[in-house]
Amino acid sequence: MPRVLLLLALAFGYALCHVSPPMVNGRPRGGLIGGDPDPEGPTTEDQYMVYSNITQYVDHFSNNTSATWLQRYQYNSKFYNKTVGYVFLMLGGEGAIEGSGDKWVRHEGETMMVWAKEFGAAAFQVEHRFYGSKEFSPLGDQTTESMKLLTIDQALADIKEFINQMNKMYFPNDKPIWITFGGSYPGSLSAWFRETYPEMTAGAVSSSSAVHVFVDYYGYAINTEKTYRTVSAPCAEVIRTAFAEIQRRAYNGADARTLLKGTFNLCDNFDETNLSKSIQFFLQNIYGYFQGINQYTGDNRNNATRSGLGVPAACDILNNAKLGTEVDRVVAVMNLYDSWYKPSDSGCRPNSYAAFVKQYSNTTMPDDDTISTRSWIWQTCTELGYYQTTDGGNKGIFGSIVPLDFFADQCIDLFGPEYTLDNTFKWIDQVRTKYGGADAYRGTNVCFPNGSFDPWQDLGHKMNITNNNVDSWLIDGTAHCADMYPARDSDKQSLKDARQRIHDHLARWLSDAQAIRQHSSALCGVAVAQFGTDNCNQAQFLACNSKLGDFWRTDTTTAWKDLATLDRITQSLIVSPYTIDSWVNVCNGFSAFYGCLGQAQIRNCLGTVGLVGSGLDLNTAYAYQGFIADWDFKCGVGFWTMYERKVLTTCVESTYVNYQQETAAALTSYQTAITQDPANACKYAQTLMNAWQNTYMKGPCRTVNPAQAGWIGCQSAREYSNAQFRHCKHTTTCASPSSVDAVTRVNAETGKTEYETLPFYEIVNDKAVISQAASWISE
């Protein structure tokens, strides 16, 4: 399935060296050829452009070979601002990026390049394995054995290695922030890369992608009919009449087929020895014209579509009875298409399935069209499916002309007997399960725009996932990847709004990632100011820790070396029947410990740098700070929320002790996510908050006051995560009770944010009372 602008075929007037169908499994004639001879908007000057290649492993997942190949890329440095470090990557797909294929990173009117200029981003495009020329291919041939290295997993690993090499080559000290872009199949890659390697990027734009890989995609024909019918219902009925008549003639004897050859200007006679396949090939090719016209209708992708090649123009022809019969009008539509994309040197149309199989069985990589088409068919046979059948029923305007076995037979004919339909179903199911399809996608920070006229839309992601910042929507009145093309004043308002919607997501992803980048860069320089020092008085710390153990009547010797030990200690202190004094005992222990240390040593010993200085790794130090912040909340605002609502005391304590498995699992997922992808920490923090909230709501408190209990769980997670990612307090939220004071305040005199220290509680007549008031300290 082709991607925007790059997809239709050759610029008008250019002849192919062999005949080629208008569409092959959704991929237009000529494949990805790059761009127009007359790009809209300025073109970046040569001095900013790099055309080069890197060395990639042929097989990223094998320990038995170290073979390498050269992968091409293009780099535009014109707008790069190293202060912010933004980098945009356009992923290559079903065609070579050479020649005018550089449009995505050189033509400054393309949507990604407009945003690169605005945000100060470098721009790259990288070529997909097995779609470049022979010398830039993993093995230099396309035998079935070699093609086994053309997989989604290998392509994603290529992208990861590409980013790593570019970082070392061009941005060694910049801490760059990457965003991937792609449309159609590269759009799916963009989403899958974000899901598979979230630590590599801050977000992904996945335009008109078909992430829900599927074998028998008859929805393509249904959506194609819907577009023609939306533009003109009479037009759709002309198509129905014409296709029924064409099919009747095709099966009406050899003489009738000879007449069809003349009517449709076919290069080849029908193969009377393999008639069924020959007629299927003929009918599929006619249907392909209507596919190609619909797939890019109204898009600003090239001179053809800008000049009106689309469904409205086709319907104008089909509705014009002066042009002859319905069949004559179908031929006229095909002539319109061929006026832009010549089908062969002589202008005749291919009609030999045998010649088709022979051409794309060539494994020597003789030309771009053969290379790209063979690779694309391989991918549809082994991992994508995408067979555009007309199996949706006889009521469709195209009839039941293209059955599933038409595509299944291609796999066997081109790659061998093991590539059966049963295996294709099995392999595609495995891919859909692995990446989640459209129903269980697991990535974060992803946009999924699709067009309402796009026949691929039913395989796209359509479900918004707020917690993961995944936004999916249909752009009314647009087709395939319309958001990626240069903007025009005449664009539909829905398309203008879509570009703005993507832009706003992009701005937010970059802003969040920038906050992390600046925080990381500043850590060493301002550690003393923000996170304490490593001047911890170890003798005092050990003495105070001993007192903590005496207070709690437990061994705390390793409590500040092994967080799991400290966690188990606090759990053990909350005992049945879960009264308030258990909670007070834990809080008083912490208060006594902090009081022994004093404010200076709290910062020196328990600050990030102090914890690392004691021998902990940075992630563990942050985990300790989260744990401390959580208990600051539990012994502060959280304590009073629970105490003032006495019915919550028992159920909240019971949840804390008895639902550790659930909360710990959510915490582990959070820690894994932020380690791999710190740029999106706030999103993962919100996920953690939601998980803890659900646990507290659905546990013992579900019959007491689930909303209040859920707030306690959510706010505990919020304090935990904010200890490391302070900027997240601006974006993460819990529904706080109106009677609860804030955990922080701004000092009116100094203007600084202050944090509440722990009060000291005592039990008097079975009630918790403050014996030592809380105080506020500056950040």
Automatic annotation (TrEMBL):
Keyword field: Glycoprotein, Hydrolase, Protease, Signal
GO molecular function, one term: dipeptidyl-peptidase activity
Keyword Protease: yes
GO biological process, one term: proteolysis
InterPro entries on file: AB_hydrolase_fold (IPR029058), Peptidase_S28 (IPR008758), Ser_carbopepase_S28_SKS (IPR042269)
Signal peptide positions (record): 1-17
Cross-referenced PANTHER family: PROTEASE S28 PRO-X CARBOXYPEPTIDASE-RELATED (PTHR11010), SERINE PROTEASE F56F10.1-RELATED (PTHR11010:SF34)
Similarity section: Belongs to the peptidase S28 family.
Name of protein: Uncharacterized protein
Organism from which the protein derives: Caenorhabditis nigoni
